[in-house]
Amino acid sequence: MRTNDALQTAARAKHDEFYTQISDIERELHQYRSYFSGKKILCPCDELYTSSFVKHFAENFDAYNLAKLTVTCYSSVTPSCSVKTPEDFAVRRLHGNGDFRSPECIDLLKDSDIIVTNPPFSLFREFITLLMQYGKQFIIMCSINALTCRDIFPLFMQNRIWLGHSIHGGDVKFTVPDDYPLSALVCGLDEDGRKFIRVKGIRWLTNLDHGCRNRDIILSRSYDPELYPRYDNYHAIEVSRTKDIPRDYYGVMGVPITFLDKHNPEQFEILGITEKNSPFRKKNAPKTDRAYLNGKRLYARILIRRRRKSRKKAE
């Protein structure tokens, strides 16, 4: 159990306390420092004294020129709300349990400008839905597989959300509570004796612009029908790796989910994902949610088409 299995097990068991490393937070958040000036930041899933998100913002409060930092987290014992401003710091007890879905926490969310946290994996869909409902800017962590959900993926198609700056593959290390079962292959104790687990498929998700967006993917391959077969059940060709996208093909292509790491909305249009109601599914094909190639079921594919206006620039 190395990557997605670890996340799925965590979701089923509600072991959602994956604590983000300060180094990962620093690499990402420094890209957005111009957005933070004069803004009210909310960390709605973070314990005041243990969260690296809180530590980062507290240490950079003046450097970022923040107007306010508010911190809440779920607790069945002593849920609290911590607020730091340039003039004061205060901690008060919440009336409820600190659940980000509670009315008092939603009021705090509505009063904030930018939401920054690593939300519980098992509640990610509810969390992102809440952010979009109230039109909030955000920088959060998630599993890339969660982005294929039918209520989240359309946001990519509409160019309302995109992946962050700094994580585009490999393992991400999280510390976990002492009672967390270390059953994954990549786990152990760090130099301070804290339990940790490494998880693949983790990404930053945001709706704030950053330096890695709108860069064309360099295309070097030429289209060859023998190298790019058509799906059994979709009107599209299979491109198994983003780097193999042909430079001279303008039809519908199926690419891996990791295409989102390099997606430039000015270069490619996202048309959808392989699902049973896709308009690109062949008329008489079975209603399956995955693409098939020579009778073999593939992982989920994103359906894209190259924009012709970027032709000269990309070539």
Strand content: 15-25%
Extended strand count: 18
Strand numbers in spatial order across the main sheet? 5-4-3-2-6-7-12-8
Number of domains: 2
**Global structural class:** alpha+beta
The rounded distance between the terminal residues' Cα atoms is 42 Å
The main pleated sheet reads as:
8 strands, mixed
Account of the 3D structure:
Strand 6, helix 6 (124-133) and strand 7 form a beta-alpha-beta unit. Helix content is 18%, strand content 23%. It has 315 residues and is of the alpha+beta class. The model is unreliable at 6-14 and 310-315 (pLDDT under 50). The protein folds into two domains: 4-206; 237-314, no CATH class.
List the helices and strands and how they pair.
Layout: H1 4-13, E1 19-20, H2 22-29, H3 33-36, E2 40-43, H4 52-59, E3 68-72, E4 80-84, E5 89-93, H5 103-110, E6 114-117, H6 124-133, E7 137-143, H7 153-157, E8 162-163, E9 171-175, E10 187-189, E11 195-200, E12 202-206, E13 237-238, E14 253-255, E15 268-273, E16 292-293, E17 296-297, E18 302-306, H8 311-314
Parallel strand pairs: 2-3, 2-6, 6-7, 13-14
Antiparallel strand pairs: 1-9, 3-4, 4-5, 7-12, 8-12, 9-11, 10-11, 14-18, 15-18, 16-17
Q: Which features does this protein show?
A:
315 residues; alpha+beta; eight-stranded mixed sheet; four-stranded antiparallel sheet; 8 helices; 18 strands; elongated
